[in-house]
Amino acid sequence: MSDTTTDNSSSSIILRCKNITRTFIETEIPVKVFENISFQVQQGESLAITGASGSGKSSLLYVLGGLDKPDSGTVYWKGRDIHSLNEKQRSHLRNSSLGFVYQFHHLLPEFTALENVAMPLWISGIKSASALDKAKALLVAVGLEKRCQHKPGEISGGERQRVAIARALVNEPDCLLADEPTGNLDNYTAEQVYDLMLSLNQRLKTSLIMVTHDTYLSSKMERILHLEKAHLKHSLQHKG
Ligand SMILES: Nc1ncnc2c1ncn2[C@@H]1O[C@H](COP(=O)(O)OP(=O)(O)O)[C@@H](O)[C@H]1O
Ligand SMILES: [Mg+2]
Predict the structure, then answer these.
(1) pLDDT per residue as tens digits for the range 181-224
(2) Domain limits, the chain
(3) Please, which pLDDT band fits residue 152 given cuts at 50, 70 and 90?
(4) CATH 3.40.50.300 fits 13-236, yes or no
(5) Is 212 touching ligand 1 by the criterion CB < 6 Å?
(6) Which ligand lies nearest to the CA atom of residue 49 in the structure?
(7) Phi-psi region at 95: left, alpha or beta (left = phi > 0; alpha = psi -120 to 50)
(8) 28 lines ligand 1 (CB under 6 A)
(9) How many helices (H) does the chain have, and how many strands (E)?
(10) Is the beta carbon of 58 within 6 A of some atom in ligand 1?
(11) What is the pTM of this model?
């Protein structure tokens, strides 16, 4: 008897997607962005998703993160089919197990860096003082101890992305999903933000799935999935 809502194949696999397909039919000519994609991610692994602009990287990330539904196929997070959950359960899984970082930081302009990082904890009901302590520790971890009381408008682009990374990590997610998080930064700052994400990935054992079109930055990851003509090419890199 097969149960399609759970998948217990291996406990160290945090993400498994099986034959996922997504076609946008809202447009005049339907766009098949990806077809029959399958791959899995181990705990602590770092993975880049590369591809040309318009190849479907963001669409794939939305489906993985449960923000969009595939036409067919299944996305399992730690064995749970994210699209079979109801909206409340899905938000809970997203808030507790996944962290999102986007190209634009989406910080709240009227709150300080510290308050922005504490926000996900406050939303999940954790008391103000302990949330602020935890947020502070994360800001220290991303090298922004001296920027806690600054608002997003008072810090640089790279610093804003580091605040966004701290915020994404504050709930101790299993996996960080990042969509071109350095796409808006100069090369030097982009590399610093990348290296920070990789060092946090190694230190905290948070898996990292990073969308990028930058081949130099993607070469720093353990594994690359290249999206082209709606299909994935896998490439295994060897890191010491
Ligand atoms: N909500 C949508 N409705 C219709 N078409 C979409 C939608 N989102 C993305 N697309 C199309 O799907 C393709 C892939 O887009 P996207 O995932 O944003 O690519 P990438 O992130 O690799 O640049 C593009 O052709 C885009 O126009
Ligand atoms: Mg995109």
Answers:
(1) 988 888 888 898 889 899 989 988 999 999 998 888 899 999 99
(2) 13-236
(3) very high
(4) yes
(5) no
(6) 1
(7) alpha
(8) no
(9) 7, 10
(10) yes
(11) 0.90
